[in-house]
Write a structure and sequence with these properties.
Layout: H1 4-43, H2 48-68, H3 123-142, H4 147-158, H5 162-168, H6 170-183, E1 214-216, E2 219-232, E3 244-257, E4 263-278, E5 282-295, E6 300-312, E7 324-326, E8 329-343, E9 346-359, E10 362-364, E11 369-370, E12 377-388, E13 394-407, E14 420-432, E15 437-450, E16 458-469, E17 475-487, E18 495-510, E19 513-527, E20 532-545, E21 550-563, E22 570-582
Antiparallel strand pairs: 1-2, 2-3, 2-22, 3-4, 4-5, 5-6, 6-8, 7-10, 8-9, 9-12, 10-11, 12-13, 13-14, 14-15, 15-16, 16-17, 17-18, 18-19, 19-20, 20-21, 21-22
Helix pairs in contact: 3-4, 3-5, 3-6, 4-5
């Protein structure tokens, strides 16, 4: 018994030692979990860097204790590898070992430090990870270039490895969140929308049947040709005229420069009439005029004009040759140069002009010709205008005119010196209301004194106007007025003063249908004799465009002259129907 009892005591003692070793091992296994729970409860969630630093320091402390006790070399604890690249130990981790560190036993070589479990995530961290995974899936649907990487992150999140997926894909998820946030920005309801390039509606043209023009150098030319027939009750508009059917051709053109600075315009027309049946009429008339506008320095502008006109004398004109088969053709060459200067609200304009008239021979009914060279003359004129701009729409002005007419022959066939001096003064207003109302009108006095004392001076009120008014879109109403002095070569007569006025209207009835109308009034007052002429005229027309280049045009006109002088009364009615071409 005495021999057995010591062995039992040794057996009990061994069992106690084993139980102690087992408890120590279990405590060592549970120590990291208890430590993490304690630190989490005391100061919240601990970062992975802090845990790594703490484990490394405890491992170093354990190795130091083992070395001091001459214990066998223990296996170094496994190093914690962070899931995210670039993670570094937390420098603020505590350097003091925990009181829960297990005692190191030299005889126990199995007491290795176990790998700590993954830290549990807080609710906010889990929600953030879920959001990142959702953003990664959205990015994969929108951006095919990142499909593979984003799909991997989404699969990792679905299998539960959210930490690794969220950490590996953090840069991509950040970009995805940025893109997704930009895509979700609210649009400004007041922002201007830009439609697609294809399918955009083009702005409708103001006049889809207007002439497009032809590019010629730096000018855009718009030619128009009319060809038709005219039936007239008085072919030559005279007191002895008769009816006729005429072929009438009219060519008109307008050219406008396409310059960056300054501008130039050229306008011209030509009308040719030829008898088909009835009274014989063979005449042609035309005019061309150009204008150049140049802007100089210091608010100074220059305006130059040059023109040429050839018109046969009308059979109803005071200077017409009686008993003639063809009236003389008057040719006029004129030019002018003007300078405009603005000084504050004051406007100054000075214009100098010259015009030369040449008359051809008149063909009499007996086949002979009668020279009209005693009617050839040159007119030199100078105008000075001063205006004050009350507003951009209203500029009153005063104008003074001085002229000198010199005849090529000092004395005409009747023995009179018909050279004369012209003096005029007028006041008026210039209007500029844009497309609504624009133009000018003036009134004053005009006088022409003849060098021969036997002939009285021609004088009278002067009225001039050139105004355009548009009461509504597509309608233009124009008013023109002019006062002219007409010289005469009739023996003992000085001439007359002519007042001419026109009221015109143009209406775009439809896009391809245009109507026009005109009323005219002429009053001629003879000087030296008690005589006067009154001429009334009316005209209406329609133009129907088949397309942009071809149209049908027609017009009807009536004209009547009433005079207290014998042999001057007449009435003329005419109808025109033709084809109009434009480019």
């Amino acid at each position: 018994m005495s021999g057995v009892q010591p062995e039992k005591r040794r057996g009990r003692k061994g069992k106690a030692v084993c139980a102690l070793l087992l408890a120590t091992s279990v405590f060592g296994l549970l120590r990291p979990a208890l430590l993490y729970a304690q630190e989490t409860d005391l100061r919240g969630e601990v970062s992975e860097s802090a845990i790594l630093a703490d484990q490394q320091k405890r491992a170093q402390a354990g190795q130091g204790q083992a070395a001091s006790a001459n214990a066998p070399t223990q296996e170094s604890p496994r190093t914690y590898l962070p899931a995210s690249a670039g993670a570094v130990p937390d420098t603020d981790a505590p350097t003091t070992a925990s009181v829960f560190d297990p005692p190191t036993t030299p005889d126990d070589t199995s007491a290795d430090t176990p790998t700590p479990p993954k830290p549990r995530q807080s609710a906010a961290a889990r929600q953030r990870t879920a959001d990142q995974a959702k953003a990664a899936k959205q990015t994969a649907a929108n951006k095919k270039a990142k499909k593979t990487t984003t799909t991997t992150a989404a699969d990792n999140a679905a299998t539960g490895d959210i930490d690794a997926a969220a950490t590996d894909q953090q840069p991509a998820n950040s970009r995805a969140l940025t893109v997704d946030s930009a895509d979700r920005l609210k649009l400004d309801p007041g922002a201007e929308r830009t439609a697609a390039i294809e399918g955009q509606k083009k702005k409708a043209e103001d006049d889809p049947f207007a002439a497009t023009g032809v590019k010629w150098g730096s000018f855009i030319i718009r030619p128009t040709l009319e060809q038709g027939l005219t039936a007239s009750s008085n072919a030559d508009s005279s007191s002895t005229g008769s009816s006729a059917l005429l072929s009438e051709t009219a060519l008109r053109f307008n050219a406008i420069s396409d310059w960056r600075e300054n501008s130039a315009t050229i306008d011209g027309y030509g009308i040719f009439r030829e008898t088909i049946s009835g009274e014989q009429v063979h005449d042609a008339q035309g005019r061309i005029e150009g204008q150049l506008n140049v802007d100089l320095d210091n608010e100074l502008r220059a305006i130059a004009k040059l023109g040429y006109e050839a018109v046969p004398e009308s059979a109803s004109a005071p200077g017409a040759v009686p008993d003639s088969s063809s009236q003389p053709v008057r040719q006029t060459v004129n030019g002018s140069l003007g300078l405009e200067k603005d000084v504050g609200k004051m406007q100054f304009t000075v214009t100098g002009g010259i015009a030369h008239d040449t008359f051809g021979d008149a063909k009499l009914n007996d086949g002979t010709s009668l020279s009209q060279k005693d009617r050839d003359s040159t007119l030199y004129s100078m105008k000075l205008r001063t205006g004050y701009e009350i507003s951009p729409a209203l500029t009153p002005f005063t104008e003074v005119e001085l002229g000198r007419r010199v005849y090529d022959l000092g004395v005409d066939s009747s023995g009179f010196d018909r050279s004369s001096t012209t003096l005029g003064a007028r006041v008026g207003t210039k209007l500029d209301l844009g497309e609504k109302l624009a133009g000018e009108f003036s009134a004053g006095w005009l006088r022409e004194a003849i060098s021969d004392d036997r002939l009285p001076a021609i004088s009278g009120p002067s009225v001039n106007a050139d105004v355009k008014w548009s009461p509504e879109r597509g309608t233009i109403i124009g008013l023109t007025g002019q006062t002219m002095i007409e010289d005469s070569t009739t023996a003992g007569q000085s001439g007359d003063i002519l007042y001419s006025g026109r009221l015109t209207g143009e209406r775009q009835i439809r896009a391809n249908l245009t109507g026009n109308a005109a009323l005219g009034l002429d009053w001629r007052d003879y000087t030296g004799i008690d005589g006067h002429d009154l001429t009334l005229s009316a005209e209406a027309g329609l133009t129907w465009w088949l397309n942009r280049y071809v149209g049908l045009t027609s017009r009807a006109r009536t004209e009547k002259l009433t005079s207290n002088l014998p042999g001057r009364n007449y009435t003329a009615n005419s109808v025109f129907l033709g084809l109009k071409l434009q480019r």
